[in-house]
Amino acid sequence: MRLDCEGFERLPGGPAVYCFNHLSWSDPFVLMATLPMRPRLSFFGPKEEDMGVGGRNRLMVWTGATIPYKPGKNDLLEATRKVGAVIKAGGIVAIAGEGRIGALESALLPLNDGPAYFALRSHVPLVPIAINGTSWLRFGGRIRIRVGEPVVGSGRPDRASVAAMTAAVGASLAALIADAPEPDRSGRSGAWLSERFNDWPEGSREAALAAQLAGSSEPTSLAAAGG
After folding, report:
1. Strand order of the sheet with strand 126-132?
2. Which of 133, 159, 156 is nearest to 144 (CA)?
3. How far apart (Å, rounded) are the C-alpha atoms in residues 154 and 142?
């Protein structure tokens, strides 16, 4: 892949929460390949009962960069403690803010409140990071990673503060991806790779696209913050 990185001078250089848009199972690996190795990068999610099931989950576990949680076993409190521990140790926590994969390169699904909650709870900046070009993967394809201005909040992570911070980072992400073209569908091998580990709640990319165009995708809560 050809990687274009923009705005990396805006990265805080210390503990923070990164909020990125989500177009493909490959997005975390793109960020691992492009973001600085220090501070250490961890990803909140995925939300699975058993991380040993499924190729994507096993691959994420192999990286050693995940903070998974088990939504069916009220595991969110422990996952929240783990997020706090990563940040307290000087690390970065990256979260797919939409909580799922979107079907449009230039449009953002509603953000959940997890990234803002964690940033306010740990008193660190919330950094918008936009990824474009991963919807359809192809040899030599161009992928763009843009870093926006960090959003700095203050006070307790109450409902109003979380909502305000979420709106600010959402506006920044939307602006960062607004000029992204919709890529052509990959060839047979590229299409297979593109969809290899994608999880579409609607059942298919086509159904997800129709729902997104119709505006039927709803924002989710903290429990969906892992993507």
Report:
1. 2-6, 142-147, 126-132, 16-20, 92-96, 41-47, 66-69
2. 133
3. 37
Written as six digits, the tokens of 102 are 């979107």
CA 209 to chain CA mean position, Å: 18
Q: What residue ranges in 51-210 does DSSP mark as E strands?
A: 66-69, 92-96, 126-132, 142-147
For the entire predicted model, the pTM comes to 0.87
Cβ atoms of 62 and 51 within 8 Å: the answer is no
**Side-chain-facing half-sphere of 129: CA atoms under 13 Å:** 32
What domain range includes position 53? 2-224
What pairs with residue 19 in β-bridges? 95, 128
Residue 66's SS3 state is strand
Nearest to 23 by CA among 129, 100, 119: 100
Q: What is the pLDDT of residues 111-169, one digit of tens each?
A: 999 999 999 999 999 999 999 999 999 988 999 999 999 999 888 999 999 999 999 99
Cα 5–Cα 7–Cα 12 angle in degrees, nearest 5: 120
Cis omega before residue 46 (within 30°)? Answer: yes
Angle at 52 between CA 63 and CA 97, to 5 degrees: 60
User: Which CATH number characterizes residue 169's domain?
Assistant: 3.40.1130
Domains identified in the chain, total number: 1
